[in-house]
Amino acid sequence: MTSLFLDIVTTAAILYVVATGLLIVFGVLKIINFAHGSFLTIGGYAALVVTQLGLSPWAGPPLALLAGFVLGAVVEMLIVRPLYNRPLDAILATWGLSIVVVQLITIGFGRGTNFVVSPVKGAVVVLGTEYSLYRLLMIVVALVLGGVLVTIMQGTRLGLVARAVIMNEALAQSLGINSARVRFITFSIGSGLAALAGALITPLLSVDPLMGVPWLLNAFMLVLVSGTSLLSLLLACVVLGGAQVVVSTYGNPVFGALTIVVLAAILLRIRPAGFARV
Amino acid sequence: MSEHPFAAGIPAATRLPSERWRIERGIFAVLSVLTLAVVAAGPLVLDTYSVSVLIRSFLYGVIAVTVDILWGYTGILSFGQSVFFGIGAYALGLASTHLDFTSPIALGAFVAGPVVAAAAALLVAWLGFGPRVSPLYISVITLVQAVIFVQLIYTGGDYTGSSSGLSGFDTFDVGMESWFRIAGAGLVIITALAWVFMRSDVGRLLIAIRENEQRCSYCGIGTARVKTLLLVSSAIVTAFAGFAYAAFNDVVAPDLGNFQFGTELLIWVALGGRGTLIGPVIAAVLIDFVSAYLSGSLPFVWQLFIGLLFIVVIVLMPQGLGPALTNGMLRRRAKAVMVAPRLTLLPDPVVGDAARGPVIEITDLSKRYGSLTVLTGVTFGASPGELVSLVGPNGAGKTTLIRCISDGLERTSGTVKIGGKSIGRMSPEGCVRLGLGRKFQAPNVFDALSVADSLRIARAQQEPLSAWRSSDEVRLPAAAMRVVVATGLDQQLGTTVRHLSHGSKQALELAMVLAMEPRVLLLDEPTAGLTKAERAAIGAILVDLVRDHGLCILLIEHDLDFVRDISSRIIVLHQGGIVIDGNVTEVTTSELVRSIYSGEPGAVTP
Amino acid sequence: MTVAAMEIDGLTAGYGEAMVLRDLSLHVGTGEVLAVLGKNGMGKSTLLRTVMGLLPTRRGCIRLLGEDVTGRPPYVHAARAVSYSPQERAIFQDLTVEENLRLGIARGERFLPAFERVGVLFPFLGMRRRQRAGTLSGGEQKMLIMARALMARPQLMLIDEITEGLQPSVVLRLAEILRAQNRREGSAILLIEQNVRFALSLANRYAVLTRGEIAAAGDASAPNVEAKIASMMTV
After folding, report:
1. What is this structure's pTM?
2. I want to staple B252 with a disulfide (CB 3.0 to 4.6 A). Which of B5, B93, B231, B324 is the partner?
3. Domain B14-260's class?
4. Which of B299, B310, B238 is nearest to B274 (CA)?
């Protein structure tokens, strides 16, 4: 029972870390970045490079964050900005980017699966059960990340400005806010977060060029269900992630992989606002 | 050439649709026969590998046609068209692997695949095309559908072959060359049929749905039903293609129905040219064929190239490579001859129950958003022959009232009866069928269609659209005809609506609404953005419509001079309720109304 | 020759293809109050939105505080010490009173001094700092809009129907505050209004807008002005 509880909490934490970048991009830019999965993959490969170069595994996440941020900035300028008025086309173009990234990675690293050295190994005894230390660490990461983002959003000028743009871009502009710059920064940060998430999850799974797709689909559904609130996202991760764990453990792991996606689709149909304003 | 304030100096249309069809039919038939001949000769000229690749490419071309019709023409972005292909393929694969491959079994699989695909499409349509569902949702559902398909195959374990798929099952004893001819001919035929379909009146309707689904609903068309029918038909056709693929290839795998293949189809359609049919077919066949050859030597570079090309096309040339390349050639042609049907005047209907009591009755209507009350206790009626103007300061609730009258789901409480029948919770198309016509404030028309096509669609309720012909005639009732002639639109039947002036678009929308022969006409600020001359023209038309055609008009306006000149009755709304309801003299001399309009705070509220 | 606070020359603008404003020319001198009056739907809000850059300009030119801002995005205008108080969707409902006010300060300015200055004019704001702006009453929201507009000591204020739905006492208070802002700080004001009396009590000049064109204009202190304008406004 404890093990199930910990599975649920750690899965929710991992989903939260993965989906946050997609959420802030959706909130500010009002588009779904279908390249999110490939930024995740880039982050994973950044961690791989760190392993292959023999550097400390702790260097992986920061390197990934930086790589994602820089690439995100380039993508925003070249691909996202021209498609400001065409949100469905933005989904398609970012998916095209995703294909490009996957192919580049495959050309560079090959198709095979690789493993990354985990910065933290082994298990600890928690509440009477032995549990993976790294997974438990992810809970801390999720809380810290969530805390940092909430602090930025609620406590800084940048966060206030971003929230203003999310709520009413025209009014924000009339008050002197350069919303184009806000979108640019948000997209870069969102991409950086995606890459960071990729570097963080690779010690748990493995690294291959297509690792991003299932995460993209899950994150996509979680974001649609959450609207624009970080808190709703957390709730969605706990509820839907928990459902996934339960189905995988007691039912069929293959169906488990479908749980989030199917439940979210049903929820959106019944209540298009999702978890927002629960 | 009329000197109307509306006409913009565009020459009259010259050719009827049937004349154009006669000319095109010849070219069309020749092209089809030539292509079929090429297909028949193909195996004699090409090597075996190419032949086997092309069979697959042709079948992919068939799916590309369905995706183009769904997305390019109708605006339904589906990531999961591949699923129906997979269903058709697995129907044969499963049947043949687990049962003896006899004729009845083969026939059973041939039928089962499309039936299951149709059922899946129905479910998706029910979820995605419901009222008030966001257009993004259908894309979400089709994506989910692809994921579910693959996972279901995986769950099947040995029964479905899981990730390795099924292979080596018995199949039809048909040689590769015959398969080539079957697949090629199938592609040509499907493309030809699709082409005819898109040229027909129903094809125009699909474009109208993409352009402005709301307007279609307000023409009384059940757009959800049309889209569902389209999705189900496309699923059936795609499933047949999948069946053929399994029959020829003798291997089926989950990738046939996955999300990646679904998006590849979208990429081919986007590159070839959305809404051109030929473009997507060529792109699908070409790219798949070339990929097969390059997959040995440079697989990833080719995919990389396609991905980059896709991004470039979406960002810079959204109409697709096909149109971008051919536009250069076409521009050299002389100005295209316009095609448009004839306008025919319908005989006046037998005047039965004219002026027999109110045609619209609103009782105690209110609208609340949570704790905010926008309308309260609104009660009034109007009869044929009345021109009632609804006026009031900003925020009085005028547009909200119109919305509550035309959409059964909008109001919070109260009843609305049109022609004696309550609208209940009916959608806009239901209200329109009861006799309501609504003209929006900003011109709410179909930018990509011609004037004649727009009028034809407005008549769709009364005169069903053909799925294979483009009719030669548009029959309009007297009221609509009058607007069309008075504003010069009869000289611009072939013009694309996008190129009309603002005033002409307003006139067109009015004509479309009148073409539906409504009993009650709701007009939301018909003079917005019009010049003085255009305003006078519209005013005269409205007065005539009420006087000569027994129409009942409800008009929202801000231009109070306009209102004073043409109304028989004025209702003043203020802060969500009716303040006064009387004739022009009563209202213009009312102290109450004057105080409301001078903006004095604390004016008496109802 | 001082630079005018706002100059519009031959402005033609509207929505899509519908031109609401036709060849309009208007100016607001430094430290001047211009009242633009007119019935609903005559183009007053469209005028302000176009001046602010929220709507594209088809023809003509807009100069704010001497600089040509035609076609530039709205945040450029705000940077020119121009405050804009729209008629609809003018506050962030889900942000607190304080956060709404913070968005009003100019770049580089400090929040507290400005907040104290404005708090003197609108004392209730101090008590409601942490309250969500959407929970304020209609009148309080209007005052919040005005407070925010004053935070940055604007040289030009564009105000769209601020008195709509307000009690007479509040309207009087607003008039006092705006008069003070204009006299003491020298802010120019372009006031869009339907409340003729309020507008004339503040304005130096007036203009009546009918169907996107100026139907009448003149000195606000001329005799019988109010009656003349009122007759143009009603049914």
Report:
1. 0.86
2. B93
3. mainly alpha
4. B310
